[in-house]
Write a structure and sequence with these properties.
With 85 residues, the chain is of the alpha+beta class. It has one domain. It contains two helices and four strands. It is globular, with a radius of gyration of 14 Å.
Amino acid sequence: MVLHRDIFWLGRQWAVTGLGIQAVSRKLEGKFDVEVSRLWDEDLAQALSSEPWFDIDDFTEALELARKRFSETPIRFKAHPTDEK
């Protein structure tokens, strides 16, 4: 996947874009991109840490900058219990 057209920060391995955080390498085909709505998930780095290519320092910087850029935590709606089947 190509990087989003709006690039706010470019690190060695990660970029902060209009999508959120994207891996710079095209070889990864967008598989590890993090959309804005997921920036506040607690286990983002942990989920990637098993990948041999993963640079935790670059990712941490990208995550910090992305959270500042998109500083408002998105509202998440839970399904109402009566809506579940």
